[in-house]
Amino acid sequence: MEKVKSFHVSRKVIWGSSIALAVLASIPKLFDPFSTPGDIIINSSITLLFSIFIWYYNIYSLPKFSSQRTNKSLFNWKLLLSVIIGIVIMVVLVIAHQELFEISKMDAPIMFELRGVLINFIVYLFLHLLFQNYQTQQMGMELERTHAVNLGAQYELLKQQVNPHFLFNSLNTLKSMVDIQDPQSADFILKLSDFYRFTLESRKLDIVPLREELQILDSYVYLLKARFEEGFVLENNIDLKQYDSAIPPFTLQLLIENCIKHNVVSLDKPLLIKLYTEADFLVVENQIQLKRGVLSTGVGLDNINQRFMHLVHKEIEIDKNETTFKVKIPMIYDNRNN
């Protein structure tokens, strides 16, 4: 699990802003004809030390109460406590500089106190803004993590929906062959075994090379041929250069199965399915000869579409006219099998 990044303020921000406040506080002294370089240095020193203290005090206290009071008012008792402590610290700094540099005359203490309160508000507001931005980023990251977990869970469900569908149809085919005592039943069982061995090996994979998908497709076509004989025809015209691309496992089987589900497949009216590439798409095309009474729910195509959206953020394309039905799936040029 990814470790949550803790709230942090850069030292450059702390020291840079403190030096800037010290310089700003000393500007009036530069235009005072009675000020000496020593006065300017002492004035800047007090402001600098006070600013640094206020930064670190608020950094220590802000996360402790802001994380628990995000819906409360920006101004609360913690800010009041910070102002009170700041006043005390400013008094201590002024007295310490008087004693250290043996200064008998300095600006009125009230001026330093007002300056301290102003610095306190500036630092508090800026730090509060930084912390709120940090919380917003953390919430965004958490939402992204949650979204990724949900997508992963949905995708796993999509993959799990494929296998039972294949198994149901394959067992129905085997039953039909056994009923008529087809001599190819043994070969069918072997091909079925090979097919489901591949199913077990690839069930945890998001994508497989197109070459492997086509190899297992050969076994699947054999299973279909055993049932439909010459009533089922598959033409593979995929460009050999595309064999090294990738595809979600069982995509082609699911598309072919979808064709068989909705169209008449018989010796009198063979179903022709073509596989070929077109630009950056792999196309599965079949002639339309719809079965009567079969309603399309779109679940199979929606399953495939969601898998591609999850993997490459691209949708499949459907091109339909009076005679042909085409499904175009994006080519994936990625060898990740994770």
TrEMBL record:
Pfam families: His_kinase. GO terms for cellular component: membrane. The chain crosses the membrane at residues 12-28, 40-58, 79-98, 110-131. One of its GO terms (molecular function) is phosphorelay sensor kinase activity. Keywords: Kinase, Membrane, Transferase, Transmembrane, Transmembrane helix. Signal peptide: none annotated. Residues 153-230 form the Signal transduction histidine kinase internal region domain. This is Histidine kinase. It comes from Pedobacter polaris.
